[in-house]
Design a protein that fits this description.
Length: about 350
């Protein structure tokens, strides 16, 4: 990438600074993007995948860091957004050595960036990083954020019920279609089942589906059927990018509320959901329970404070839905605008 192109990309995303590290001994090639630190240090996970080019890795770091700033702001955290990416070596490598070098890189930034887990990285990697710096969460000591993410999604589902004109306030008898019953999806099913919801589930892993059938009396459907199954709420908890124009056309639900990151394939999919009168809980708001957990653990807070902050997701979502109604604009745009006001005190261009 030409230098000017990098600066253009940084300027467009509003990224504050971009840091590069090459460590020959371990083979580490890492990039840390610090998007915004006005509200506090930049927190965001470390992604390690075999990027096809350095340009691709830079673009990913910048895009993801910006998303983290928006997420932290709407979650009401005194944090900015950042993200790190490690270009996974194509040759065999020593994982511990690599993450030790990465921990040293984070330490050099003196607390400006705090790392956590993301695609490809593991709890054991966070433990290795913790030998070099204290600016890390998601270690064995801090624990698994998935139950907190699920709790936030559950609160978000309650908010969609309150906001939707045809729905009552109780989950009893509500049909909820959960796509992906992994760490978050399964924990969400537990909460919904406890409240009497009727679950419909799909997963590419048959065993996980069978578990939900046996534990919650869930109705299994195929990975294709889940989009068109009649239900009250569709809850994407598997992969990102599942809400494309074709899938949105198939939906037979009143609301979409799930944990998956980047659910809308393109920004205009938010408008399509709005046009179809399907209430959409913006992904980075409804799934912010995980970030709240990671941040609170980093700052040394306990479960009571974590749960108190997760409760706020419900109120913030209700606010988004009220603005959507007043301004007749998609909730995805409303959430972005609310985050921008918190980040910049105004809307970005
Ligand atoms: P996970 O890997 O434990 O679970 C994902 C599940 O989705 C797996 O069981 C997988 O088999 C299934 N799946 C994949 N493709 C599918 C498909 N096409 N149809 C149906 N199921 C499919 O991951 P997780 O930690 O539960 O996270 C789920 C989603 O929530 C991800 O998008 C993740 O980025 C997001 N998220 C997770 C957290 C967290 O705390 N773990 C926080 C915020 C956001």
């Amino acid at each position: 990438m030409f230098q000017q192109a990098i600066f253009n990309e940084i300027a467009e995303a509003g990224v504050n600074d971009l840091h590069f590290k090459f460590d020959e001994a371990s083979g580490l090639k890492a990039i840390i993007a610090v998007h915004n630190t006005r509200r506090g240090p930049a927190l965001g996970g470390c992604r390690i995948i075999p990027y096809s080019s350095t340009d691709e890795a830079i673009t990913d770091a910048i895009r993801l860091a910006k998303g983290m700033s928006y997420k932290a702001a709407l979650a009401g955290l005194d944090l900015g957004g950042g993200k790190s990416v490690i270009i996974e070596p194509s040759e065999p490598y020593n994982r511990e050595k690599l993450f030790k070098a990465f921990g040293g890189f984070i330490e050099e930034l003196g607390g400006r960036y705090i790392t956590a887990m993301d695609s490809g990285s593991r709890v054991s990697d966070m433990d290795t990083i913790a030998t070099q710096t204290r600016h890390v969460s998601c270690t064995t000591v801090s624990g698994n954020p998935a139950p907190s993410t699920a709790l936030g999604v559950y609160k978000g589902i309650l908010a969609t019920l309150k906001a939707h004109k045809d729905s009552g306030h109780s989950l009893k008898g509500m049909r909820i279609a959960v796509q992906g019953v992994g760490n978050v999806g399964y924990a969400l099913c537990q909460l919904l089942h406890h409240d009497g919801a009727k679950l419909i589930v799909s997963d590419i892993d048959e065993k996980k589906v069978e578990q939900c059938v046996s534990d919650f009396g869930a109705t299994p459907v195929s990975s294709d059927e889940i989009y068109s199954v009649p239900c009250d709420i569709f809850s994407p908890c598997g992969l990102g990018g599942v809400l494309d124009h074709n899938h949105i056309n198939q939906l037979q639900c009143s609301a979409v509320a799930g944990s998956a990151n980047n659910q809308l394939l393109t920004p205009d999919c938010g408008q399509q959901l709005f046009d179809r009168d399907i209430l959409y809980a913006p992904d980075y708001l409804i799934n912010s329970g995980g970030l709240i957990f990671v941040a609170m653990k980093y700052f040394g807070n306990g479960q009571v404070e974590i749960d108190r902050r997760i409760d706020v997701i419900e109120e913030t979502l209700l606010q988004v839905f009220r603005h959507q109604q007043q301004r007749q604009a998609p909730s995805s745009l409303i959430a972005d605008h609310m985050a921008e006001v918190l980040l910049y005190g105004r809307l970005s261009a």
